[in-house]
Amino acid sequence: MKEAEKSLDPQLWHACAGGMVQMPQVNSKVFYFPQGHAEHAQVHVDFSSLPRIPALILCRVGAVKFLADPETDEVFSKIRLIPLGNRNIGELDFEDDGVVGANGSENPEKPASFAKTLTQSDANNGGGFSVPRYCAETIFPRLDYTADPPVQTVIAKDVHGEVWKFRHIYRGTPRRHLLTTGWSTFVNQKKLVAGDSIVFLRAENGDLCVGIRRAKRGIGGALESPSGWNPGPGNSVSSYGGFSMFLREQENKVMRNSSPAGGNLSGKGKVRPESVIEAAALAASGQPFEVAYYPRASTPEFCVKASAVKATMRTQWCSGMRFKMAFETEDSSRISWFMGTIASVQVADPLRWPNSPWRLLQGARHAQFGISLSDLHFNNKLQPGLFPSNFQRYNMNPRTSNSIMTSNTNSNENLSCLLTIGNSSQNLEKSDNVKRHQFLLFGQPIITEQQISRSCSSDTVSQVLTGKSSSDENQDKVKFLSDGSGSTLDQQVSPEKSSSTGFSWHQGFQTTELGLDTGHCKVFMESEDVGRTLDLSVLGSYEELHRRLANMFGIERSDMLNHVVYRDATGAVKQTGDEPFSDFMKTAKRLTIFNVSSSNNIGRTWITGMRNAENGLDASNKTGPLSIFA
Amino acid sequence: MKEAEKSLDPQLWHACAGGMVQMPQVNSKVFYFPQGHAEHAQVHVDFSSLPRIPALILCRVGAVKFLADPETDEVFSKIRLIPLGNRNIGELDFEDDGVVGANGSENPEKPASFAKTLTQSDANNGGGFSVPRYCAETIFPRLDYTADPPVQTVIAKDVHGEVWKFRHIYRGTPRRHLLTTGWSTFVNQKKLVAGDSIVFLRAENGDLCVGIRRAKRGIGGALESPSGWNPGPGNSVSSYGGFSMFLREQENKVMRNSSPAGGNLSGKGKVRPESVIEAAALAASGQPFEVAYYPRASTPEFCVKASAVKATMRTQWCSGMRFKMAFETEDSSRISWFMGTIASVQVADPLRWPNSPWRLLQGARHAQFGISLSDLHFNNKLQPGLFPSNFQRYNMNPRTSNSIMTSNTNSNENLSCLLTIGNSSQNLEKSDNVKRHQFLLFGQPIITEQQISRSCSSDTVSQVLTGKSSSDENQDKVKFLSDGSGSTLDQQVSPEKSSSTGFSWHQGFQTTELGLDTGHCKVFMESEDVGRTLDLSVLGSYEELHRRLANMFGIERSDMLNHVVYRDATGAVKQTGDEPFSDFMKTAKRLTIFNVSSSNNIGRTWITGMRNAENGLDASNKTGPLSIFA
DNA sequence: TTGTCGGCGCCTTGCCGACAA
DNA sequence: TTGTCGGCAAGGCGCCGACAA
Question: Does the model's ipTM exceed the 0.90 cut?
Fold first, then answer.
């Protein structure tokens, strides 16, 4: 990759980055969080080769470059930081820490811009683009309405300065603004799909600019990204399933036409762990360094303006406290607020970073939503009142820890709702103070530890899934839980309808993280959210297995044939019967029974499973033998 | 790039590599030529950081991996070599140097295979593939001729093991074999264009395999590759021009659909110079090393079996000797022979590699044609009888030197025919023993030094262009010529018709290599083959320049306006008048006057020029200030 | 106001035999 | 024997207004 390093218009950059993204000004002071930088790399960064590094390092901003990926158009920046020495935080002067906000540089005027999330119709192959009236009238060049129909050619420059031409027409009854000719070329070239956003911006010199913000892609999002958004239920299984199929087909198309390297639109690997190590080492030794920051990467900022850090450090967060967080509806530039109650306070990684305030500040912009509001549009029925509960679905990876915390709290208190799945009943037996109520939610058995905290959501149910396993957790996990709080947090909420698909992914992720001993196998029904654990070592044949599964799920044994697939430790997906039972017994790690009735559904889920199988292979490098299946 | 490193079927590998490619057997002995390795990298490799390295190093072959590029399907191999110490060549035992030939491994049976160069119709979007009868009947599965029409699905595996399905039908009047459904998908996926070849092979296990051999792409082929083939004249200017345009349009299409990285189908940069340095250093120090070898890269082998080297070293090549070389018609597996007379013998790089036999052996497979016969198909009218003269057009890069040589010969003797161009008349004045006959060939003045050597070709005229410049050659060149032979060889033949375009490219290349002092500028007419040198420092204005040019070429001065373009030292292409004359005078390196009459021609040539301008930028890294223009 | 749909025309894709090299 | 061409049909692409949320 050549370092063209051509800084683009900061206004366009900010428009693409999103309204909540702020960049520190040159010569301002910021705190650099190596931990946050590591999270930004979205892979595990092993700091063990370095001496202990401070959790946060005060730096002066030497330079900021506004850049865009030449392939994906994703905006990112390179920030040069000069450490200011290892003085006590209290002694420091935080005054001149100006921040370049959404309005770009020192110019207080926000340029006229408009963002729209692409609908299916917008992204369809045979279609045009429905231009919202506001955009057409305030951003686009003035149309001559005396013509019939009024039509013009709109010329827009992208982040690379490349020029795109669109036919802009005002037609139909009732009249509406549309981009027709040229639009589908743009969609194809930029490989846009429904859910991605497009930003139109009228620059100061009058040029019309166009930028894109890609939706977080990939079904395995929750698997790939520690802070990834778990799309979850919402508008029903079928609609989501259909959408994921669409994505896959698109992706295939894209992959066939482009090199494998070019197909990676979803990020990851943009910041390499070596870069983090290098930066952290330089920072700790007081030498200038440069970091790349991808504002769309859904991880919290790791260069936070010094005054904000200082202000937030004054607050002692503890569970039970109410809090309020700003986030922006990206396509309309309004600020929305989310209010909630702090559920748990916990140091993210007490071994490596003791007393680190990282993600404690979830105020000083760690509280910012890493995911953009546009993601919420997957839920077509979404209403403002649902935001809080949706936010709770934000997937808090146990590895990267909880977002809200102090250091001396019982984390079992104030949890909204514990939905225990899989083999976690073992945990419950250990924590003797929990009450067990079994009830059905959307037809699925749910075990709660506490009643719903009404403060989170007024008309929906929110649950927190405990993903913790007891004795069979892997080494990594043991370390992480060693602070004794005894509960790995992971939140999931189903606001209106439950989606088995969504849940299964989630569970797949958890299983990935937890791992299982040989002989034990997770079993899932395609249509159900809840998995069970089965000890294969007590079984002697496929017939016995099928009988057992038939009993377990109350279905006909004959229906089992050709409907049970599993993944083995190597990641291969097989059907029962593919290999001798003795081999199956040893290697099967996750087993899924497909619905017998709907053949359509089977096809779809099978493909989904294959997809996750790929992700599973990746993940296995990190956590050893595992099994994922949706 | 991940090292999948999955060795593919050696038979398929050899079928794709071409019939002339031989790979050394494991445990056999070969000589490793660092010089050849460097040429293989196709960029300048600077050995100056290393101590002096032997010109050839005897090695044992540790391992051979047969691989294929995951993106382009280009076959290559990795050869592990273990140096056998620095003993005197004469003392060595060359016995067990078995070679894996085209028939693959030790198996003496050559598998049934067939290669065909794609015609326009084959590569057209809306078309199928005309299967030569031989291929259909001996390679494809047997067709049921009782059906009407006979039809079957042919399934073939590519180098990655990926399966492709083609509808194979025998229809039409007269009957012919065709691949229809599935073919265009294959063409698109593999990004094949007319001129590329496809190889069908029936493997030993009965599987049908399909491989591809890409034609050397890009108009600047002769510029990019030291041993590149100069397509030259042939079936008229317009047909060639048309074809090159076609290539360009195809390329654009490809580029739009694929990432920039994926667009590089033409090679270059496959072997990085660092790898060469590393290998050479390890080889010199007697440590095992690995080299990658791209048999389609058109550079001579640099791992040559030891016995062949030894045998050839016995021969004292000198000019005037007759020689005979084998090469294969790749699509029919016949061996053809080329016979010629040695024109000049010269050490390739006497400073860096004194007494190196590199390219002394263009016998021991250095004489092999680096280019495939398929390149000759650009000349549609090509007949077997023309091969010799066509071969003479093979572009012998002065840098990489002449292929046939000894060290004590007057290189001015026995030259087939010297066509002196540009400012080389100065040379002639220095070599007082040459006779000067001026005559016209295809309307161009030609100065011969000797009569045509009839032995080269019976019905065509062959010439050797002397590309030598006198006092204005650059440092690099001076070094190269320092052995005193005083003649840089470059051969060019126009068998039937002359193409100004072809000639111009050739000249462009020569000018590149030779370089010019500041102030001196090469001047070319678009329609002419012959360039002149102009001392810009004696001119004072654009007007004076135009007047001078008008005189020089006998055209109207007014016609000059807007028809003179030039390239400066940075590689930029400009029109006269774009910058102040004083700047122009200092930087212009090559100047071209376009035909005024035919606007069509101008357009075409302009595009060609731009293309070459790009190549010029690359080349400038190697030779300093230069000027290329076609 | 704008997202989605069916209608429909145009243009590309791709299969065919004719024809000629 | 096989390369190229025009014919032609199918189907995808893409523009349109209708309709409804």
Answer: no
| Cβ pair B260:A189 closer than 8 A | no
**Which pLDDT band holds residue B317 (cuts at 50, 70, 90)?**
low
Q: Which residue of A has its CA nearest to B257?
A: A257
pLDDT in tens, B537-585: 667 777 777 777 676 666 666 666 666 766 666 656 667 777 777 776 7
Cβ atoms of A218 and A264 within 8 Å: the answer is no
Q: Nearest by CB to B261, which of A189, A257, A261?
A: A261
Rg for chain A, CA atoms, rounded: 25
SS3 per-residue string spanning A29-96: EEEECHHHHHHHHCCCCCHHHCCCCCCCEEEEEEEEEEEECCCCCCEEEEEEEEECCCCCHHHCCCCC
Backbone angles phi, psi at B136, to 5 degrees: -65, -35
Closest Cα of chain A to B188: distance in Å? 9
Handedness of CA B598, B599, B600, B606 (dihedral sign): positive
Q: What is the pLDDT of residues B113-145, one digit of tens each?
A: 899 999 989 988 777 999 999 999 999 999 999
Please name which of B431, B321, B372 lies closest in space to residue B214, comparing C-alpha atoms.
Answer: B372
Indicate which of B257, B264, B617 best probes the interface with A, i.e. most A CBs within 10 Å of its own CB: B257
Chain C positions with any atom < 7 A from a protein CB? 1-5, 7, 12-20
Chain centre to alpha carbon of residue A529: 21
Instruction: Name residues 167-226 of chain B within 8 A of A (Cβ).
Output: 189
> Rounded CA gap, A393 and A385, in Å?
15
Distance CA B366, CA B279 (A): 20
Q: Measure CA of the first residue to CA of the last residue in chain A; give whole Å.
A: 35
Backbone φ and ψ of B299, nearest 5°: -115, 150
CA distance B453 to B414: 8
Chain A residue with minimum CA distance to B263: A259
The upper half-sphere exposure of residue A57, i.e. CA atoms within 13 Å in the direction of its Cβ, equals 30
Q: What is the pTM of this model?
A: 0.53
Residue of A nearest to B261 (CA): A259
Q: State how far the Cα of A600 lies from the Cα of A594, in Å rounded to an integer.
A: 11
**Which candidate, B584, B583, B579, B571, places its Cα nearest to that of B626?**
B571
Which tokens belong to B350? 């006497």
